[in-house]
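queue> pop job 88
queue> type: inverse folding (structure -> sequence)
queue> payload:
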């Protein structure tokens, strides 16, 4: 089979690699499309090795067709699916534990479904399962026009919460408003802390920035607020004022999805099951949809990475692997 291989210089090339086969309860998926995530950019640059035992090939989510099954009886050859991966998506075929495979949501085209697994699992596991966002509460989403951000807006609105977002341009904020954001903040010329405090403070903050926003995020929290950090684009070290947390009875939580175990409590399989049960009905009803900003042939993965790195795209960037 063929797959994208990252060279020592970070360049990506479509090369022949050894064939794979499913083992245990895995499925073999013939990949139609793969979603690109910032973790892939980091791995290609040599800064984010895959978890032990995971494929060295890039790619954390795909859509495609079941080509072979291991011991599982839940799936059958020919079914159209999408899947959350620990790696291996930028390839013609990928082997995936059955618990990380999801049915194709009704009305979503096969290729577009590649933009759902990572954002759906990230948002639901962090915003609802971890932070406990409920109807009527205010959620602040940094990077509102990103893949995760556009999905979080829609899920937040679907469950009845209010949503505030930050983004760096008017057209990105316009997209966020179209998706249902109640408060849109241009972080280049507005103070998100003041805007959010004027709304009563955030009950939940979903943060991709990390260190650079830590103190300001805590300022933006309301009483009993929860800050969930899922990225480190703004660095890894910052001073934490515990007094502010105590005064607000607030919490700071940091999570990661890729390194979670396949099964058991807090696992990827548990999260996938929750997403299928709770998010897929929202997708099938049209309340939540994948936001696709660009699609490239898989052979042009390098250009697709450059686009995502530039920040000049809203929503997900996909690689088309097969028709």
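queue> result:
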């Amino acid at each position: 089979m063929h797959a994208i291989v990252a060279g020592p210089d970070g360049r990506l090339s479509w090369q022949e690699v050894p064939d794979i086969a499913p083992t245990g309860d895995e499925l073999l998926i013939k990949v139609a499309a793969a979603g690109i995530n910032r973790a892939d950019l980091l791995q290609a640059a040599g800064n984010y090795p895959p978890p032990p035992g995971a494929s060295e090939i890039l790619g954390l989510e795909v859509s495609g067709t079941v080509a072979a099954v291991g011991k599982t009886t839940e799936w059958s050859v020919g079914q159209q699916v999408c899947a959350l991966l620990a790696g291996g998506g930028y390839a013609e075929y990928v082997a995936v534990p059955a618990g990380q495979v999801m049915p194709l949501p009704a009305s979503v085209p096969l290729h577009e479904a590649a933009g759902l697994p990572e954002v759906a699992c990230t948002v639901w596991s962090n915003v609802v399962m971890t932070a406990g966002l409920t109807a009527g509460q205010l959620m602040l989403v940094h990077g509102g026009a990103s893949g995760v951000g556009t999905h979080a807006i829609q899920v937040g609105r679907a469950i009845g919460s209010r949503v505030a977002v930050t983004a760096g341009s008017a057209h990105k904020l316009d997209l966020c408003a179209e998706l249902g954001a109640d408060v849109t903040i241009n972080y280049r010329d507005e103070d998100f802390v003041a805007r959010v405090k004027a709304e009563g403070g955030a009950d939940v903050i979903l943060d991709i920035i990390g260190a650079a926003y830590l103190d300001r995020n805590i300022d933006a929290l309301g009483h009993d607020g929860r800050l969930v950090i899922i990225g480190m684009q703004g660095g890894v070290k910052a001073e934490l004022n515990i007094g502010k947390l105590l005064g607000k009875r607030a919490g700071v939580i940091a999570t990661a999805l890729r390194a979670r175990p396949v099964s058991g409590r807090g696992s990827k399989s548990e999260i996938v099951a929750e997403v299928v049960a709770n998010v897929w009905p929202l997708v099938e009803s049209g309340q939540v949809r994948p936001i696709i900003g660009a699609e490239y042939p898989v052979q042009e993965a390098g250009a697709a990475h450059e686009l995502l790195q530039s920040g000049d795209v809203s929503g997900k960037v996909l690689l088309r692997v097969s028709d």
